[in-house]
């Protein structure tokens, strides 16, 4: 996650180390692995460096008279092999690279006084079927040219997707890099390994699980299988305690890369084991679901359970602590819990991540945390906070130069509309620069239609999938909420001047949606207190209460002209209005009763009717 920063920092270190040690250009050849460029870009630099610095050749050929000639022969063979590779002669290139390895091993054996012609490479081929414990041992008598040639063989095997050959040559690469005879600097080794892991990850994420060319066995046909094995071998080789070349920094970063690859391959059970290892190594509590179940079926638990125990015995991985690592681990946790829909742990991991102080993670890590945090807030319908998280994610992606910034900008626009905010997201300085991007133009038009309450244009943009808005699964999940929000706005605007309006008229204003949908929207508005009225379903009419009727209802329901008058005067009389209204209504009722009694008495006197009969 923070690899690009590390590569920039380490490039100067490797150059300085190569100059100090006279390493024969090994670090230079490895530089292309970190950046993913082709080896030919560095070819002339390597050749000049090797030719001008005789220290590497003298070290390798002590006691041999033709040391300089041997170094030149190795160099020529190596670049001949690269030329054959570029010309498309893959099989010939493999043979030439193998000859480079054999030539250097033979030379180093003679220099060491070893007469045995058997090569460790051949011994390793026979051990490739054994356990990783027997495979990962340092290879003797190999030098920097052997390391470079083996690395090229791994790349050729990745091209042809030969799983067994990839594993065989990658094991050789790890064994040579860990051998003190090879003289590979830690920086060069780390760059070479990181480059290979990046190639494997990119290969897996860009390909389907179709069968590919390769030998028989577990790793021959399934690219995911050999990708897992490549990472397992790397983690074992550089384990801080039991590895053949302990490197806590590289082990930690490899675990992070492996966790991201497992997430993309949707292997959540194995990912839980990786996160558990990272948490324990950094001294944090391993709060991971399914801990009792281990790492899953097969040989998964065998990889991680020893790591947990070893790291605990080693004192908790003191070199892997810190705010940056804590945020990188939290980013993996947030991805895992989002996929598992474990809201409780997701919220806890997000809160831990945003509360970290002192860490300087890569902007992509920050963006990932904020993006998934925004999605979490969206699921809780907390649209205001979600829009803020998406805006922070957009800025972090923009800082990293990542195209994912456009995706987060879409989410920001959507959250702003769901929040019914009157602020246009494109008014911000950061977002304004992208409003004319082809992927964003449709969202710009959508926001404009939303703020204009133009539901016909709004729905047309969604139905035509302009700018491929509907291709995003997360956007599709909230389309219903978007339509409900703009329809609610249109209803409140259109019914404002009226006290009675037909439901069919409202349906027409909403682009001819069914009457049942109109009734559902109106019921929601009434229940939310945004609309005061009722629905006459028999007549298909919405009846709104007028201001006077609403005031009368609040004053106790008294009728007559006096009640309306009191209602109109209520606005300026504070909390005594209800008592005065009731008193006035009682007086009026008493007056009416006395008037009725006077009338009855008059009729009794005029007609001689009994008082009791009139009262009946």
TrEMBL record:
Polar residues biased stretches: 568-579
Pfam families found in the cross-reference section: PCI
Positions of the UniProt region annotated as Disordered: 1-71, 551-579
InterPro entries (UniProt xref): 26S_Proteasome/COP9_Components, PCI_dom, WH_DNA-bd_sf
Biased composition (Acidic residues): 1-20, 27-71
Record-annotated PCI domain positions: 379-549
Name of the featured protein: PCI domain-containing protein
